[in-house]
Design goal:
The protein has 260 residues and is an alpha+beta fold. It has two domains: 2-196, no CATH class; 203-232. It contains six helices and eleven strands. It has helices at 2-12, 44-52, 57-60, 129-137, 146-152, 205-231, and strands spanning 20-28, 34-43, 73-79, 82-91, 111-116, 121-128, 153-160, 164-168, 172-174, 177-182, 188-196. Strands 3-4-2-1-7-10-9 form a seven-stranded mixed β-sheet. Strands 5-6-11-8 form a four-stranded antiparallel β-sheet. The longest helix is centred in the last third of the chain and has 27 residues, at 205-231. It is extended and about 105 Å long. The chain starts with a helix and ends in a 29-residue tail after the last helix.
């Protein structure tokens, strides 16, 4: 991470078009198991500039190493114009993890605590942003202000909680996943969230819209069937030849010819 930050900071002096995104994701299950995922995304322009300066993607991510963490999964994923290097580590008991993610999340969290009771899961965390960037850069980021870093460097912290979310101070919520979009200029980020692992999370708004839409369609279909049954037949088209004996407009039908 240190080499990457130093290189990106140097490139920032030349351009602000490059982008780097760091996502720290924590999944907490009701049985206290979970996982920690760290993603580092580099855009194509940054990779091209790095290669032009003699750095490869592997060189840039030399510090992005998990060592011998058991069960770790490493993958790469393309999203738009960015390439994400992803490390996912499963955790048997997330409350007993001394440091969630260990070395791989160093600098992102000063304290991160998960506590469980019978009906409450609580997450508390503190991210000292100034100290975190300084530690990751090893003191080589002096002269690069948080405002400048914020132009090309994005950090998101995502936590997926079990059950029903009761309260949180996240930037946004999608289902059971809370996202904190880190403001590098804010100094310190406080993370707080609570959920009831035994309660249902409820239907999402998207599912609700689907259900409402289906109900409207069903109501229209039932109305059509009702009118069809009441009239004895489905309504004919409004254009065409009018059958004999059928009133046309306000005029009565013609009288039948006299019988002989």
């Amino acid at each position: 991470m240190r080499r990457l930050l130093i290189l990106v900071a140097a490139l920032a002096l030349l351009t602000t078009a490059c982008k780097i995104e760091v996502n720290a994701e924590f999944t907490i299950n009701a049985d206290k198991s979970g996982s920690v995922t760290l993603e580092i995304g580099l855009d194509d322009e940054l990779l091209a500039m790095a290669e032009a300066s003699g750095q490869s993607a592997d060189d840039m991510l030399a510090d992005f190493d998990i060592g011998d963490v058991p069960g770790a999964e490493v993958s790469t994923e393309r999203r738009g114009d960015m390439t994400f290097n992803i490390i996912k580590v499963p955790i048997d008991d997330i409350t007993a993890a001394e440091n969630l993610g260990g070395e791989m999340a160093a600098g992102l969290t000063e304290s991160f605590e998960v506590t469980f009771t019978d009906d409450l899961v609580t997450v508390r965390g503190t991210v000292p942003l100034d100290d975190a960037l300084g530690d990751m850069g090893g003191g080589d980021l002096e002269g690069i202000s948080p405002d400048m870093m914020a132009q090309f460097f994005a950090i998101n912290i995502r936590i997926t909680m079990p059950g029903k979310i009761l309260e949180h101070n996240a930037t946004s919520q999608s289902g059971n996943t809370l996202t904190w979009a880190v403001d590098l200029t804010s100094g310190t980020l406080e993370i707080s969230a609570e959920s009831n692992p035994n309660a249902s999370a409820g239907s999402s708004s998207v599912l609700l819209y689907v259900i409402i839409g289906a109900a409207v369609i069903l109501a229209a279909l039932l109305l059509w069937l009702f009118l069809r049954k009441r009239g004895g037949a489905a309504p004919e088209a409004s254009f065409g030849v009018t059958p004999t004996g059928t009133p046309a407009g306000d005029y009565p039908p013609p009288a039948p010819p006299p019988s002989e």
